[in-house]
Specification:
This protein has 79 residues and is mainly alpha-helical. It has 2 helices and no strands. The radius of gyration is 18 Å and the shape is rod-shaped.
């Protein structure tokens, strides 16, 4: 795969993962606020685990983007 295309694909996946994690965090925070107001029992453990999984996915996506960027930089420094 072309490095530029790989980079763009990885960045798109990174943004998608970030958006998903941000949405999950919003739902968790809403549950926490409801718990503080005694309107709810708190965020379900399943939600917290899904958020943790989403954060791990973000880390993987970031590493992939970094690796592609590093590969793109190497030829420039060799000249």
């Amino acid at each position: 795969m072309d490095k530029r295309l790989a980079l763009l694909t990885s960045i798109a996946e990174l943004k998608s993962s970030h958006d998903e994690a941000a949405m999950m965090l919003s739902h968790i925070m809403l549950s926490v606020i409801r718990t503080a107001r005694h309107e709810d029992d708190g965020p379900p453990l399943k939600s917290v685990r899904q958020y943790r999984k989403a954060i791990k996915e973000l880390k993987i996506q970031c590493l992939q983007v970094e690796m592609i960027l590093a590969e793109m930089e190497i030829p420039r420094h060799v000249h």
